[in-house]
Design a protein that fits this description.
This protein is an alpha+beta fold and about 525 residues long. Helix 14 runs antiparallel to helix 15. Bound molecules: glycine and manganese (II) ion (2 copies). The site of one manganese (II) ion has 4 residues, from loops.
Amino acid sequence: MNTADSGLEELSEGQPLEDRVNNRSQRPTSQAFKDFMSAGWAPSSDELPEQAAVAPHAAARRRALSERFKTERLVIPAGPLKVRSNDTDYRFRPHSGFAHLTGLGLDHEPDAVLVMEPVEEGTGDDGGHHTATLYFRPLAGTDSEEFYSNARYGAFWIGSRLNLEQVGALVGLRTRNLAEAETAITSNVGDPQFGGISVRLLRKVDEMVDALVDTVRYNTAMDPDNMDFSALDAKDEELTEALSELRLVKDAWEVEQMKEAVAATVNGFTEVVKILPRAISHPRGERVVEGAFFARAREEGNDLGYDTIAAAGNNATVLHWIRNNGEVRAGDLLLLDAGVEADSLYTADVTRTLPVNGTFSEVQRRVYQAVLDAADAGFAAAKPGNKFRDVHAAAVRVLAERLQDWGLLPVPLEEALSENGQQHRRWMPHGTSHHLGLDVHDCAQARRELYLDGIIEEGMVFTIEPGLYFKDEDLTIPEEYRGIGVRIEDDVLITADGAENLSAALPRDPSDVEDWMAGIYAS
Ligand code: GLY
Ligand code: MN
Ligand code: MN
């Protein structure tokens, strides 16, 4: 092409690639336009909100962390906006560790950083060893150019946000402009033996903050050419681990959030049952199911806590089936694993396996009952004093026994259950439980001795979710079992002497499931 004729060469020359996003529309640049856009807006409200109910709980969490790392600066980023494609971002969700320590959930606050600064013993927040300050990009005033010109951060484009004072009042934290964060993170970093401050970072959340800390560590090292990077990584990892372990036992406010998330999830499952006749008649019935649940998640909560698994027939045997583009056929089972994330970012994680036509066949019921009995055995083991791993052991024993009864186990029961056997895992390949909270797989960086080998305590919230999955392609089992996948997943709160089933509002017993579905269609 003759670019000289078209004038393209002249237009593109020297224009940085990142500016070319503006080539699709004309953006006025005249001073007259800027002056006009910067004036005539009603002032933003500076009314202070009431303190949120989470604030004292978040303060107590920071106080516990302060006790663990008394003399060190702790840096906990929220994370940046994440690009979905080109110039389109995902909705913002802060890192769960940041949300836990600040109490900030939905939308708050891209690029923010919480810095816990060590102070003299007893002079910190709540008599602790640190003062905590939240650094974030404040709302640009309506008289600023950013207000209308920044499509990523300007209130003209994305809606108004709370200012520094308002966020401070909401969560009871000192707040400062993000521009001051660099100094707060890097000042006086150095070897404590020589009066410097040791810094620990929640790493891999915000690359910019990682780079800032790496640079200051390098610049202040006694011997920069021989830095012990693995020791520094280990130090940061200890903070990550501590933040994860801090979430193992939920406080009263968190339990309320979990109950809200589960209640919305129960409503989502009810919507799915209502929509099943349409799903059956649709070539991608699983998408109909997924969409019905998602609508509830957005109406009642912030989002899904994780991608919904809407799996009918043989797809139910595919553990991470999130493509959800299959048919939903009468006569098959539908395995729906879905959870609503509340605005606070706490999520439910529930699975029910439903007979699409409202009635379990004999073999479907046989498999379903085995899974239910396994879940009940898991419930019986879920109590303070037992180990977390006992829940899995109890559930899996029931499943292995049933597999033996049906002639499917290739070895004797005890051999299968021994460490060197485990043949039953062909049909129940996942764990029975995981902690649940801000992340669907919460507390994932906790040490094994506090997780799998940990003692169950009052206030823990976790799932009980045994399943059996017999694939169409599995030639080791009789044909009648093939294409049947069943999981029953409930969310439990550990009480003083047992487990409260938070998701008990959804029926579990097979006859109750049938009656529930029939009741929905009758009404
Ligand atoms: N939905 C993910 C899980 O059950 O762990
Ligand atoms: Mn789960
Ligand atoms: Mn699940």
